[in-house]
Predict the structure.
Amino acid sequence: MLLAVLVSCGPRPARHMSDEALLDTVERYTVKYFTDFADPATGLARERNNDRNGNIVTIGGSGFGMMAVIAGAERDYFPMAEGVERVGRMVATLERLERFHGAWAHWYDADSGQTFSFSKYDDGGDLVETAFMVQGLLAARQWLQGKDEALAARCDKLWRDVEWSWYTRGTDSLYWHWSKNYGWKMNHRISGFDETLITYVLAASSPTYPISRECYEASYKTSTYYYNGKEYYGIKLPLGMEYGGPLFFCHYSWLGLDPRGLNDGFTDYFERNKAHTLIHRAYAIDNPRGHKGYGADLWGFTSSDDPDVGYSSHHPGTADENGTVSPTAAVSSIVYTPEESMEVIRHLYYDTEMFGPYGFYDAYNPSREPAVVDHYLAIDQGPEAVMIENYRSGLLWRLFMSAPEISQGLEKLGFYYQTTP
C-alpha cells in the first residue's frame, strides 16, 4: 500500500515581501504537515507522505510535531483549543500504544495500533525516538499549565514511566533498542557526538529512573567521533565527525534544549553547532566536486530523500554527497546562522519549485531532472517549524527549559549556562 498525498505548488505571495512574512509563510505551511496531514485517528505524525508500508506513524517525528502544534497554536494558525485537542489526541494514543519498559517503538501502524518493525530486529523499544517524543511531552506539559491541568498531568506520567536506567543493562552505557522478541540483539550503545545527546540529558533528569553522570561520561563521550578539534575552512570544530556530520546533529536534541550559552567546560554548544553549520556552507561555496547550484544560497547537507537512492545522509566527506541539498539543513539552522539561512530560504522559495502544501519539499538536486524531490518526512519538517519558532520567539526552548527536572539533569552531567538564554 502506498500512502500518498497530493503535492502541488504552494502559494506565491509578492516577491518582495519581508523576511518576517516569508518566515511566517514557511512556518505556517510546515506546521500543516502535523495538522492537515497528521493521522486523524491517532493525531500522530505520519512518517512520510509517500509511504509504501501503509499508514505508518513515527514516534520521534510526532515528538517534533507536538512542538510544532504548540507553535502553530501560539501563532494563531488555528484556535488554541484545537491545539490543546491535538496534543490530547496524541497523548491518548501514546497511553494505549504498546511500550517496552516505558519506551515506545520507532514506528507503529496507525490502523492496527501495532508496532511496525523499523528493521529486522528493531521491533521494540527505541530509546532515542522515545527521547525525541519526551522532549515534546515536557514542552507540552509546561505549555498546558493553566490550559488543561489534567492533560498536563498525563504528559507528566508518560515521562515518568520511561525506564531510562533499565536501558543501561546494568552497565555504564545506555542502549538504543530492546525487543521482547530479540532482547538486546541490536546491541547498540548510544554514544556521540550526534543527535542522541537529548537521550542522556533526559535520562539524567528523570525523577523516577535516572542514570548517573558516570554513565554519560563512559558511553556518550568515548566514541571515536566525539572529540574533533580540527579546522575546516578556517572554522574550528570541537566535537563531531569529519565536517561535523549531517546537520540534524545540530537540530534534533536542540528543539527544546536551549544551546545558547550552554557549556560543559570544554564546549560552548551554541558555538559548536554554529561552526558545524558554517562548515557546511563553506563546503558548498568551495564545491570540491563541482555540483550544480551549490553556493551561498544553496547549502546544507543532512539525511533526507534524494533522486538517486532514496533516503541517504549526503554530508560532506562521504560518497553520499551527490549534489543533493536538503532544505531542513539550512532552514532548521536559522537559530545559528540567521542571515546565511535566509539566503537559502529566499532562493528556494522565489527561484525554485521547492515550496508545496506542507512547506519546502524534502530535497533539491539541480544536477538531476527533475531537480525537486517532492516528498515530505516528519523528521525533516518538524525541526524546520520548531527552529523557525525558536528563532522568532524562543518559545519551545523557553517551555522545555522551564521544566525543573532539566536544569537538575544538566547540572548532574556537568553542564552549565555561561549566560542566561
Remarks:
- The chain has a mean pLDDT of 96.
- The radius of gyration is 20 Å.
- The chain has two domains: 35-225, 226-397.
- The first strand starts at residue 56 and ends at 58.
